[in-house]
Specification:
heterotrimer, A alpha/beta (652), B alpha/beta (286), C mainly alpha (189), A: 652 residues, alpha/beta, five-stranded parallel beta sheet, 24% strand, globular, C: 189 residues, mainly alpha, Fumarate Reductase Iron-sulfur Protein, Chain B, domain 2, 0% strand
């Protein structure tokens, strides 16, 4: 082989502590190296041209570049050598920056190490083989998991772009948390007024197929070719027949069903439509409260339904959809305030969560839009809002800031002062986070225009006195304890990952952080992609954020899918596992450890069992290779021989 | 279930809280728990020893644990939460600063003798169900509020017992004795503790708050599990009345006295007559 | 203790003091983000000169004199409300205890009557092995020049047999004395 070695100075990043000239000189002594040089910025255009010219003039068959981490520029250099006619996998990059020049300032030691690193890369290259990608067809349909505002935006954008969309939503209606809000900050837009038309679009567009009250059961396949099993949960109502007239809800005798949409305030009927603008606007029977399903008596709804849509014998149904890409927009849940025993959430009825208060404020809420105390229905005059309940709190395992509570509390305080002009509103806060457009001005408005009193300091305890609640807080700016006798206390509960987020991630084979938020490929530069090819993220499932950011990510994810589907085929990565069937003993351990389901056992004609790699699904992690007792399964471009060649040369 | 524990009464049980000691012994006897007194036990040092160095208090308390261990006992029960804190701190200091601790203590120490409160013994080892079955004279139609005090369940990582904000162990035991337990918001609020003699005004205010809340929820009596809380709420109730211009008349009994009465142990044995605020109304049927 | 009005931070911030507080209390004071929860939960704050969250702030800024001379640290009853509620998992009560201990060592205790009470308590433990309550109240009252404190309680506790009139001496007094002596010599180091 004829190998060329290029040592990058990277300005002073490398040359500052490594004698690149000496490294290049030493490299000429390595076996098969016929050309070695150092250069200021190898990744630059002239730098790349140097490499390409050298390949031509010295008839090089392989290239080693010693520079930054391959995570930075391996793709760049592979493209460069490919242009010059060399297979991109006959290229190796030695990291003499992050792993060498950046560690210390001992020039001699660094230069010695750089020489070793280059020698290792040369030895590996000598064992490399040319690798070639294959093309697979792309199924231009996209699955959107989650029908909140992020998922809705992603679905609409994909649909506008001519793609077929399958949307799966866990709740009986789409709309997510935004559908529960009364008004949105900072414009005080009515939430259902701005979301409603989008929800209707999702229902009416020809190329969007909506599965509501359904969940993803299983996913198999790979980018361009996913197979998704969807569980349509039993609603006990035939949604093809149901017109959403609501007659059944009027006559249902079981009136104490838990009202999920109204956060447990007030009750609803066992058969119900969650809210007036629900999409799909169909009835569903809650089997926990239905008198027939629990006790065998009733069936009134069946009798009075004008279109005979009730189906008590309905069971869950599994349907299968095939898609080429998946957008995960599964949203979030809110922190359970009952964890804070000192606040009395769950113990005192007038200590409520902000989402419960949002439902109280809403005209379609449990009190028809009139602000009332849950305990006695009285209109409250003294209301305390408490920020950071379940956020920025290590002691309850939620160290992060939820990003939206400062704004929504200000909104709720403004709405309260609007509804009840003689009310006194107090906000207990530690800091104010208001970074968006018009956000800080909104907080100022709450204090200056609406007279909301902001008190800097956490609340220690809430306890009842008579029929009111004593809020014992602090004003750290004054250095005093503050006592407020409140009629109502609203807790700004923070954002946490959705229930079921972790199991869903495992079905999708994507990663999540310690708080259950899904991991993006790069926190700064690739916020809507995951490390699993073909799976994209949008909205709060990726991390706490407000509505504009969720909508933005919905569109971003859609554009990633559009880009993916802009060609009819996609190239696969050839750095995948392969099986040497002569050495495979059919133990099946590789199949068990593969996190991606990319290995199958097959039976040969002679009856022996062998392992088989599904190259398009394989992500090249190497777990199978590490597990195989016989080393029959190897990872292309990181074979045992190649790795051992690097190690062995160090001991020569 | 524990049948035999080392018993560390603490200094107040020989003096101001003598009826607590009496009722603990009587109750444990009836429930079949053998209390093995730690021979020649010494004062644990309580709060005062902590003003110089936790090491002094740890050593003073540690001596008692070491003696218990040498008697072959692994669990020490004490009715006083402050003593309990001192005993547990001895184990903690032994873990954090073993050589210094052993230097000052001057005797062998294993660090594996567990210290529990009498409340923990009654709730975790015996349990409200067993007690309810043995009740002969339930406190029918009486409301008794459980006042836990600040140390029994706080801080949660140290106490490792019940809940720091809304504990229920004493509630369940009172219910087992037949009384109703109204929701009591000040279960773990501090009564003023040891500042009774040096800063009486502080105790007046804090104890007064607790009595006020007990009265507001309709209590006929207050149950306690701490000699200092009992002293502040019961013995000093008159002082509170004078200081706050109030007229509280709430009997304050030890939880062991309440359960003991419900089980039929005679009141003299339980030391009922030693309480400051008269208890006659409590024992009259409604 | 006087509240500082103009803080010349560079002149008054004692870094060694901060390190010593952290060492003795086992807590990292930079974790405190000054939320005020401890101050909001403190039942004794009404009589403090600095609420407990401001004591933490003063420690963060190394204001040794102000903190060690404060009333707050001595009026603190160690009731653990602050530790229980701190969202940053700081054991605030342990910081207060460390400050009490340091103020004794530096001889700047503000509430001398409280220290007097503790000292009398410990003297009795040293002498008898157990606290002789009657003796404690008597000795404290005399030394604090408040002879009639709790005199109103005297008659009833006497009649109910709650007042021991003679101290009980334990047998292992020697062991107790040695614990005290070894502690004093350890502290002297």
């Amino acid at each position: 082989m004829r190998i060329g070695v290029f040592i990058c100075q990277c300005g002073t990043n490398i040359a500052g502590t490594v004698d690149t000239r000496a490294v290049a000189k030493k490299a000429m002594e390595f076996p098969d190296v016929v050309f070695a040089v150092d250069y200021m910025y190898t990744c630059s255009e002239p730098g790349q041209k140097e490499i390409q010219d050298a390949i031509a003039s010295h008839r090089l068959q392989g290239v080693v570049v010693a520079a930054c981490s391959p995570r930075m520029h391996e793709a760049t250099f592979r493209r460069a050598v490919k242009k010059a006619g060399i297979n991109p996998y006959m290229f190796e990059q030695a990291n003499i920056r992050e792993h060498c020049s950046w560690i210390g300032t001992d020039r001699e030691a660094n230069t010695r190490k750089a020489i070793d690193l280059v020698r290792m890369s040369v030895e590996k290259l000598r064992c490399n083989q040319a690798l070639f990608s294959t093309q697979v067809a792309v199924n231009k349909r996209v699955l959107v998991i989650g029908g909140g505002v992020a998922g809705i935006q992603a679905a609409l954008d994909c649909s506008d772009g001519g793609l077929e969309v399958v949307m799966v939503e866990r709740e009986p209606s789409i709309g997510g948390k935004m559908a529960k809000l009364d008004k949105t900050f900072p414009t005080i837009d009515c939430s259902s007024c701005i979301l409603g038309p989008k929800m209707v679009d999702v229902a009416q567009k020809e190329n969007i197929r909506l599965y509501a009250y359904s969940e993803v059961e299983a996913i198999s396949g790979y980018i361009g070719n996913f197979k998704v099993d969807i569980r349509k949960k039993a609603t006990y109502v035939d949604w093809d027949a149901c017109t959403g007239c609501g007659e059944c809800t009027q006559k249902c005798p079981s009136k104490k069903a838990f009202d999920y949409f109204n956060e447990g305030l007030g009750t609803t009927t066992a058969i119900n439509i969650p809210f007036p603008q629900a999409i799909p606007k169909k009835a569903r029977i809650d089997s926990d409260y239905c008198r027939y399903l629990t006790g065998g008596k009733c069936r009134v709804c069946e009798k009075i339904c004008p279109v005979k849509a009730i189906r008590f014998d309905m069971k869950d149904e599994i349907v299968t959809e095939e898609v080429g890409a998946i957008i995960v927009a599964s949203g979030y849940d809110l922190f359970d305030a009952r964890v804070y025993g000192e606040y009395g959430g769950g113990r005192y009825p007038d200590v409520i969560s902000a989402m419960q208060y949002e439902r109280i404020l809403s005209a379609s809420g449990p009190y028809g839009g009139h602000i009332r105390r849950p305990s006695d229905g009285r209109e409250p005059k003294e209301i305390v809002f408490i920020s950071c309940v379940g956020s920025r709190d290590i002691s309850v395992d939620r160290p992060y800031c939820s990003g939206v509570c400062c704004m929504y509390i200000a909104k709720q305080a403004i709405m309260t002062r609007d509804h009840i002009p003689d009310s006194n509103c107090y906000v207990s806060y530690m800091d104010i986070r208001a970074p968006g457009k018009g956000y800080d001005e909104f907080i100022r408005r709450a204090q200056e225009e609406y007279g909301v009193k902001y008190i800097r300091g956490r609340v220690g305890r809430i306890y009842p006195r008579g029929d009111r609640l004593v809020v014992q807080g602090a004003d750290t700016l004054l250095g005093v304890q503050v006592e407020i006798e409140a009629d109502l206390v609203v807790l700004a509960t923070g954002v946490e990952c959705s229930a079921g987020a972790r199991p869903l991630a495992e079905k999708l084979r994507i990663s999540y952080d310690q708080h259950g938020f899904y991991m993006e490929s790069h926190p700064k530069l690739r916020p809507v992609e995951t490390n699993t090819a073909g799976v994209f993220l949008a909205g709060v499932c990726q991390g706490p954020k407000d509505i504009p950011a969720s909508v933005g990510q919905g569109s971003a994810a859609a554009s990633k899918v559009q880009a993916l589907f802009s060609r009819d085929t996609i190239e696969t990565d050839p750095q995948v596992a392969y099986v040497n069937e002569n050495m495979c003993i059919g133990c099946g351990k590789c199949e068990q450890v593969c996190p991606f389901g990319a290995i199958r056992m097959k039976t040969l004609r002679d009856g022996s069992r062998k392992s088989e790699v599904l190259e398009t699904v394989c992500q090249g992690c190497g777990l199978c290779n590490a597990t195989c007792p016989n080393k029959a399964i190897q990872l292309r471009h990181s074979t045992d021989d190649q790795i051992l060649a690097e190690i062995n040369t160090l001991f020569d | 279930m524990l049948k035999r524990v080392a018993y560390y009464p603490g200094c107040s049980c020989e003096g101001m809280a003598i009826e607590y000691d009496q009722s603990v012994r009587a109750l444990c006897y009836v429930l079949g728990i053998e209390l093995v007194g730690i021979p020649d036990w010494n004062c644990c040092g309580s709060t005062p020893s902590h003003s110089y160095d936790p090491l002094l208090g740890a050593a003073l308390a540690g001596r008692n644990l070491a003696i218990a261990k040498s008697q072959g006992l692994d669990v020490v029960m004490t009715p006083c939460p402050s003593c309990l804190k001192a005993l547990k701190t001895a184990n903690q200091v032994f873990r954090e600063r073993p050589s210094e601790f052993l230097d000052v203590l001057g005797m062998p120490f294993s660090g594996d003798v567990r210290a529990i409160s009498v409340l923990q013994l009654l709730y975790e080892e015996i349990g409200p169900n067993l007690i309810q079955k043995a009740v002969k004279f339930p406190f029918k139609n009486k409301k008794i509020v459980p006042y836990y005090g600040c140390l029994l369940t706080r801080p949660p990582a140290f106490a490792q017992f019940d809940d720091p904000e809304n504990p229920v162990s004493m509630d369940r035991l009172i219910e087992a004795a037949g009384a109703a337990v109204p929701d009591f918001p000040h279960k773990t609020e501090c009564c003023g503790a040891a500042l009774g003699i040096t800063q009486r005004d502080v105790v007046m205010r804090l104890t007064g708050r607790i009595l006020e809340m007990a009265r507001a929820v309709g209590a006929d009596a207050v149950a306690v599990a701490c000699p200092l809380c009992q002293q502040n709420l019961d013995l000093r109730q008159d002082q509170v009345n004078r200081a706050l211009k109030e007229n509280f008349n709430l009997p304050v009994l030890y939880i062991t006295q309440i359960i003991g009465c419900a089980l039929g142990i005679d009141r003299k044995t339980l030391g009922i007559e030693k309480l400051a605020v008269k208890t006659d109304a409590l024992f009259q049927s409604a | 203790m006087q509240r500082p009005h103009v803080l010349q931070i560079q002149k008054t911030c004692d870094q060694e003091f901060i390190k010593r507080v952290e060492r003795e209390s086992g807590q990292q004071v930079s974790k405190c983000y000054q939320c005020g929860n401890c101050g909001a939960s403190c039942g004794y704050t009404f009589d403090f000169d600095f609420p407990v969250n401001q004591i933490m702030r003063l420690v963060q800024l190394g204001q040794k004199e102000t903190v060690l001379g404060s009333r707050s640290i001595w009026l603190c009853a160690n009731c653990q409300a602050c530790t229980t509620r701190c969202p940053c998992n700081i054991e605030v009560a342990r910081v207060m205890e460390a400050l009490r201990i340091m103020s004794v060592a530096e001889g700047v205790v503000s509430k001398k009557n409280i220290l007097l009470f503790y000292d009398e308590f410990l003297n009795l433990v040293r002498r008898y092995g157990r606290v002789f309550e009657t003796g404690l109240v008597a000795r404290y009252n005399i030394k604090a020049l408040k002879p009639f404190t709790d005199a109103d309680l005297g008659p009833q506790v006497l009649m109910k047999g709650k007042l021991a009139l003679k101290p009980h001496k334990i047998k292992g007094l020697k062991a107790i004395e040695e614990i005290f002596k070894r502690f004093e010599s350890h502290r002297g180091k």
